Prior knowledge:
Strand 6, helix 1 and strand 7 form a beta-alpha-beta unit. This protein has helices at residues 60-69, 87-96, 99-109, 116-128, 139-151, 179-185, 198-206, 224-228, 234-252, 267-276, 285-288, 323-328, 340-351, 356-359, 376-381, and strands spanning 2-6, 9-12, 20-23, 38-40, 43-45, 49-51, 72-76, 134-137, 156-160, 190-195, 211-214, 258-261, 280-283, 298-300, 314-316, 363-366. Helix 4 packs across helix 5 (139-151), helix 7 (198-206) packs parallel to helix 9 and helix 10 crosses helix 13. By secondary structure, it is an alpha/beta fold. The protein has a single domain (13-168, 176-386), classed as TIM Barrel (Alpha-Beta Barrel), CATH 3.20.20.
Amino acid sequence: MNIQLGRSRSVRRAYGIDEIALVPGERTVDPEITDTTLSIGRQKLEIPIIASAMDGVVDVNMAIKLSKLGALGVLNLEGVQTRYPNPKEVLKKISSVGKESFVPLMQEIYSRPIQEELIQKRIQEIKSKGGIAAVSGTPQTALRFQRTISESEADIFFLQATVVSTEHEGPEGSQSLDIENLCKNIGIPVVVGNCVTYEVALKLMRAGVNGVLVGIGPGAACTSRGVLGVGIPQATAIADCASARDDFQKESGKYIPVIADGGIITGGDICKCIACGADGVMIGSPIARAEEAPGQGFHWGMATPSPVLPRGTRIKVGSTGSLEKILKGPAILDDGTHNLLGAIKTSMGTLGARSIKEMQKVEIVVAPSLLTEGKVYQKAQQLGMGK
């Protein structure tokens, strides 16, 4: 339903994850028999969770551990891991600097050139320990290092920008990335993002991508919505892009996973993203809270170090437990941020969904009071859902 914004402008109402609730059906299922598998190209993940390509979230060791636990970690090819031979010293600086000096320090640190040999080294370090080598870069990095990424035998390439499209106009004489050509020639699955609309998602799928990332600005450390005024609340964005996936499957016979990226903190958030149509999620801050995370209790966005217009900040997330506890439990917190796989399986069982596809068909209602109704004591005492 459109709403009249002014005399000559009508707008559509969009919904965020916090505004909806999932409705139990007529049956329930034992969580043990639910299937949460996410497939990207030839890779099959037991846990439909991808750790964001952020320097405070994924390094080589985290990528390996995530793979062994059944999830996926994406290494940022434009981060400190490929600019510095010993990134631990740099990460210590980032975690210890004060708020006022943070952005200038980040701009200085990320001004150091990317080293091609470090791209090769990091990919090989992950693969040598049995990890899935998933790496991420902007269109500029794809143009510069496509051959290096391919020859280093990375497993998946994530092409990421604040907003991505198949039709980019640049200054005269500049080179623009051809996404269709990249997908045909790089030799590995390509996941592309970020987008929030049916039309762009469908064009990306027709260009040959192996996955679409959905979400502009909802991330915990992202400030794009404040800086640029751009974005669509996640529930609506996911549903629209999932509709593009279903229509593309009808016309081509190919199924392209939709991955919700940003604004996801708890197991309940993940479940609602899947119900809206996502096949999996990409999360940053929940994984940054792992004891093993390179950010040492801090988390910052990919666009934070922009030399011209920073669109992210550094937030303190703390360390709440091991990566295994966060992904698989047993949970030692009561706020939905531990045992994320257990939350997905339990929610699916409660809703009577045996698979992700069945979960995408559960009933959804608009329910702005879902997270506050009856939670007076939790909020007053800052417990559970009131933290």
